[in-house]
Design brief:
Among the domains are: 102 residues; 145 residues, 2-Layer Sandwich (Heat Shock Protein 90). With 576 residues, it is α+β, with helices and mostly antiparallel strands. Helix content is 49%, strand content 19%. The protein starts with 6 loop residues before the first helix and ends in a 7-residue tail after the last strand. Strand 7 and strand 8 form a beta hairpin. The relative contact order is 0.07. It is rod-shaped, with a radius of gyration of 62 Å.
């Protein structure tokens, strides 16, 4: 497709605009991705902070519950100690007492950790009332400073022998089902151990514990997994309970643990979609450190990013399309403006050249016309006054001389027509009659050359207001040029049509056409393909048409018809 303007700058502008639109789309995509990543990071950090806070609260609540249970057991042990001041330790009675207070069991042990068996020694009523231990025979004040023992999370009896004295063991509370305390008895030389069922405590810890919270959070939308790791990268708690106790071998996690800074990254696990990983260092018990890893799904981020990217691409394409249309309009308008400026400059140059040529022609014609007049008068006198006896040859020579004088005078008249301003005498003209008159002037010459004349005249043509003689001169010149362009015969077509207030007169011949290099200059002076003539006919015709406010155009090419179109303004309301 041929553009109506030079394509080089237009294509360059399109490429520049396309690059700017692509840069805009890429920048929007990157900005959107950064914003979405920032939102994911903020969400993960807020979740990690909330989980850390809730975990600490859960641990404190569990510790408080254990402390309350331990205090209750201590109170029960002291109560048993008070009761034993008034009666011997009977296993059945201890069992009933434990059931009445919701305890698992009550053990009365001697200093070696064996069940206490009081010596069989009767005591009087006064002794029991004074608080002496049955069978001891002495006060128990020496036992007042005996250590208080607790087991459960930190203290537990030996697993081999439950009757053995309590020893310090690093045993987790939730691995057992019994919690207890032991106090030094005041009523006898030994220890009172009170055991309670720890199932309620364990259930409470399980309900408010970190594992349960992580499992609940892991079921929320947008969360792939949550894991709590210790300093050895062992999974302490996980949203998938099956992962608890398994080690992690990712070097990035160890680096995050060493740096003690929050780290974020996009990772792909098991060849699946990417996830957004947030790793936050945590302080566990004492100096122990740990990591909280939260894996967030990027599916929603991907959907939003694709939606934003699609919107940016649509906007970019719309801007590109509008930009291309705008550039095309700008280039087209500019090219047309430049073409008009160039045409005006050419017209000014042509008029200046014609003006210069006309002035020169006027001077030359003035100098030539006087001698021509003298020669013409001399020839007339020779014809009348000095005719010889053999007049035939004499007259022939005089005719030749007078013909050349007339031809020179015609050339002079053409020169003068370029120099003189045209004085038009417009009158109403019936276009059909004007064309018939031109046909009558050229039909004899056309018939002699084997050329047929055709008419293509529309009906109801409007009246043309123009100078009859000048328009006759224009059409006659065009018709004679067409006849001379067809030495081997052909067709000369004269036509007339009117549309949109413009009368178009056409003179067309079927000759060999005009070469492309000569076609743009056919209306310039002295441009002709004829062996005779100065090439001023079309220049004069153009000058006459433009003086009427019209224009003349030509269409032709090698081996094609040549068509001249004379377009003149008319009053469309008057028809002839």
């Amino acid at each position: 497709m041929k553009l109506p303007f030079p394509p080089r700058y237009f294509v360059t502008s399109m490429l520049l605009l396309s690059a700017l639109v692509a840069l805009f789309v890429v920048s929007v995509a990157h900005r959107t991705q950064r914003e979405l990543s920032s939102q994911l990071e903020e969400k993960g950090l807020a979740l990690a902070e909330a989980l850390e806070t809730s975990s600490r609260n859960a641990i404190l609540s569990n510790a408080l519950m254990e402390e309350m249970i331990a205090q209750r057991l201590l109170d029960n042990a002291r109560l048993v100690d008070q009761l034993l001041r008034f009666r011997p330790p009977n296993p059945e009675w201890l069992k009933q007492l434990a059931a009445a207070n919701g305890l698992a069991r009550i053990d009365v042990l001697d200093r070696d950790g064996r069940p206490y068996a009081p010596p069989v020694q009767p005591l009087g009523m006064m002794g029991r009332m004074m608080g002496a231990v049955p069978g001891s025979g002495r006060d128990s004040d020496e036992h007042r400073d005996m250590m208080v023992y607790m087991w459960g999370r930190r203290w537990a009896p030996s697993p081999k022998d439950e009757s053995a004295p309590p020893t310090i063991r690093d045993q987790k509370f939730w691995k057992g089902s019994v919690a207890g305390v032991a106090v030094g008895a005041r009523s006898f030389p030994g220890i009172i151990a009170v055991h309670a069922d720890a199932k309620y405590v364990l259930n409470f810890a399980k309900e408010i514990g970190v594992q349960r919270q992580i499992e609940e959070l892991g079921r929320q939308a947008g969360i792939e997994s949550i894991a709590l790791l210790d300093q050895d990268l062992m999974v302490v708690a996980h949203s998938n309970p099956e992962r608890v106790g398994q080690p992690e071998t990712d070097g990035a996690l160890r680096a995050a643990l060493a740096s003690r800074r929050v780290s974020t990254r996009l990772v792909s696990r098991d060849g699946e979609n990417q996830i957004y990983e947030i790793v936050r260092p945590l302080a566990l018990e004492g100096d122990r450190k740990g990591l909280l890893r939260i894996d967030l799904s990027t599916a929603s981020m991907g959907r939003v990013w694709r939606s934003q990217l699609l919107a940016a691409m649509v906007l970019g394409l719309a801007v590109l399309g509008l930009g291309i249309l705008g550039l095309a309009a700008i280039f087209y308008t500019q090219h047309r403006h430049l073409a008009e400026v160039k045409a005006l400059e050419g017209e000014v140059e042509r008029r200046e050249r014609l003006s210069t040529l006309g002035n020169m022609a006027a001077a030359v014609a003035h100098e030539i016309r006087n001698p021509l007049n003298a020669i013409s008068m001399g020839l007339q006198r020779l014809r009348v006054e000095f005719a010889p006896a053999e007049a035939d040859e004499y007259r022939r020579l005089l005719e030749v001389a007078q013909g050349e004088v007339r031809r020179l005078n015609t050339i002079v008249e053409e020169f003068l027509s370029l120099a003189r301003p045209l004085s038009l005498k417009p009158e109403p003209i019936q276009v059909a009659a004007l064309l018939d008159a031109v046909v009558g002037l050229v039909e004899h010459e056309a018939g002699g050359a084997g050329i047929r004349i055709e008419r293509e005249i529309s009906r109801e043509l409007p009246v043309l207001h123009a100078d009859r003689d000048r328009m006759n001169q224009v059409l006659l010149n065009l018709a004679l040029n067409g006849i001379q362009a067809m030495p081997d015969g052909g067709a000369l077509i004269l036509g007339a049509a009117a549309a949109d207030g413009t009368m178009t007169l056409t003179v067309e011949d079927t000759g060999p056409g005009i070469s492309p290099d000569l076609l743009p200059r056919v209306f310039e002076p002295y441009v002709t393909t004829k062996t005779k003539g100065l090439g001023l006919g079309l220049t004069i015709a153009r000058r006459i048409v433009e003086a009427h406010g019209g224009r003349i155009e030509v269409e032709s090419g090698p081996g094609r018809r040549t068509r001249f179109r004379v377009m003149l303004p008319v009053d469309g309301t008057n028809h002839g």
